[in-house]
Design brief:
- By secondary structure, the chain is of the alpha+beta class.
- It folds into 2 domains: about 120 residues, TATA-Binding Protein (2-Layer Sandwich), CATH 3.30.310; about 100 residues, Ribonuclease H-like superfamily/Ribonuclease H (Nucleotidyltransferase, domain 5, 2-Layer Sandwich), CATH 3.30.420.
- Helix content is about 35%, strand content about 20%.
- The strands form 2 sheets. Strands 1-5-4-3-2 form a 5-stranded antiparallel sheet, covered by helices on one side. It has a 3-stranded antiparallel sheet with strand order 6-7-8.
- Helix 1 crosses helix 2.
- The longest helix has 14 residues.
- The radius of gyration is 21 Å and the shape is elongated.
């Protein structure tokens, strides 16, 4: 449980709504100094989705119809979209971080997560070497296996720099930028094993099994 201003605790429904006018009353030191968040996704229950709709209506958001969504709303430069699948909410815009801290978390989710990843997901901050591959289903291009070592300090630096699940990164330019950040982060040791098409065919003939080839690539990276 995370102590909050006024003695309330994260996850408690008596937390109450933190209004825009309350921001000045909350010491900024309560929140870690994060890189500004301009995009955020969170899972919702259907009940939470309805609560969010009501909150947006009360705040004067303009609603519009979009395919595959329960609803989509906009106010100023802030966009809030709730997708049918999940459901899940996608928040985008310069005011994303404030909306998460002062509206989504206290009034809809009922718990504080932004900036408290170490508490909610401690395994992510323990020393470990993460590894994955890309290209095993492609006809052209290399099979690439990449890994990176992180600990608590490194993980926090990466999160603050904008590193996220690759499935949420859709721009090739953004991918290259984030890759450079990972490589340049002090203490973050990385390894990349790239197997071109010709070498892949040669190795596949030897291993006779993709999983064995991948196991070799993972071991080589580690």
């Amino acid at each position: 449980m995370i102590p909050l201003p006024g003695g309330s605790r994260c996850g408690s429904r008596d937390w109450g709504a933190i209004r825009e006018s309350d921001r000045a009353l909350i010491p900024q030191s309560n929140f870690p100094n994060l890189r500004p968040v301009t995009s955020h996704t969170a899972p919702l229950t259907y009940s939470q989705a309805e609560t969010l709709r009501r909150v947006l209506e009360e705040r004067g958001f303009e609603f519009e119809k979009k395919q595959y969504t329960l609803f989509a709303a906009k106010k100023g430069k802030l966009n809030v979209t709730v997708y049918e699948k999940g459901p899940k909410v996608l928040i985008q815009g310069k005011e994303t971080e404030d909306f998460i801290r002062f509206t989504l978390e206290p009034e809809v989710l009922g718990e504080a997560k932004l900036g408290y990843e170490e508490i909610h997901d401690p395994d992510k901050f323990s020393p470990h070497f993460g590894i994955d591959e890309s290209g095993k289903g492609d006809f052209f291009g290399p099979l690439v296996i990449a890994g990176a070592y992180t600990d608590g300090v490194i993980a926090r630096r990466l999160i603050d720099a904008g590193i996220m699940d690759s499935k949420r990164v859709t721009s090739p330019a953004r991918i290259r930028k984030l890759a450079a950040i990972i490589r340049d982060t002090p203490g973050c040791t990385t390894a990349v094993v790239a197997i071109g098409p010709e070498k892949y065919n040669e190795m596949f003939a030897s291993f006779k099994n993709l999983n064995r080839l991948l196991a070799w690539g993972h071991a080589r990276a580690i």
